[in-house]
Amino acid sequence: MSERSVLVVAHTGRPEAIRSAQLVIERLSAAGIGVRVLDGEAADIGASGVAVMPSTAAAAEDAEVVMVLGGDGTLLRAADLTRGVGTPLLGVNLGHVGFLAEAERDDLAATVDRVVTCRYDVEERMTVDVVVRLNGSVSGTTWALNEASIEKAERERMLEVVAEIDGRPLSNWGCDGVVCATPTGSTAYAFSAGGPVVWPEVEAMLVVPISAHSLFARPLMVSPRSLVAVEVLPGTPRAVLWCDGRRTIDVPPGARVEVRRGTEPVRLARLHLTPFTDRLVTKFGLPVTGWRGRVRQPVQPSPPLKDSQVGNDGGATGEQRR
């Protein structure tokens, strides 16, 4: 196998993703780069000359990058493999909005060329670590890149919770749930629940009640050093904790969910230094008709200095500098 290697992860339920994976493998192999695929996807992709890896962190270990072909859900699945080993993820959007993806389907060949020539940057995205406690004991731990959401498990009844920030109670909510999100997740579930859009470089955690029956149920943005806790009150229906819509833990009445900044970030490969504002406009199709940008006044040349304004060193005198 080549000293260089790339892991390819695809949404094999989509024929387009399979075709894209085959193209990526062909171009990477032609460039002398070794290719890995996951054992659960190898048969569907049907490529030869690749290393078939178990669907564990070992698949991404020592790889240069993980190319993810699909939507944000596929990238979140790949993040499970890379978070512990630090391999950057490069998403190619074959889905709908695809906020986490760096490239679009039409740019696939050019994206592979950028990987071959190592022309990409890497940025780190904040994660959250989550602990569920029951009667003082830890009953479950997990993590999230986008969000941890505590949701009611029974449709017919509201969830009764109390929110806590840094060890102090904030408010009781009768609600459908509470979303605790990262800036990356601000455009995902938290956005749908009415939370603010947060630029990725802002370090903060979001707390967004879902359909809360309360006068004070606004989205909150707290310090990244804060400990956010949501306690499910006794006598209320049981809840379920969802992390990135993938990992679940049951949260019975009386349980407590603690969310804090994650100890390990997720690394994303960046091909373009596109401002996040432009990404919002493109992904959501926001209207910007009429924008003219900053109006710049023409630069007027400075008048030449008179002899009396020039010092011995040829520079402007103090009077002129002022």
Automatic annotation (TrEMBL):
Principal location class: cytoplasm
Compositionally skewed regions (Gly residues) per UniProt: 312-322
EC number(s) per entry: 2.7.1.23
Catalytically driven reaction(s): NAD(+) + ATP = ADP + NADP(+) + H(+)
Positions with a binding annotation for NAD(+): 72-73, 77, 146-147, 157, 176, 187-192
Active-site residues per Swiss-Prot or TrEMBL entry: 72
Role according to the record: Involved in the regulation of the intracellular balance of NAD and NADP, and is a key enzyme in the biosynthesis of NADP. Catalyzes specifically the phosphorylation on 2'-hydroxyl of the adenosine moiety of NAD to yield NADP.
Protein name: NAD kinase
Gene: nadK
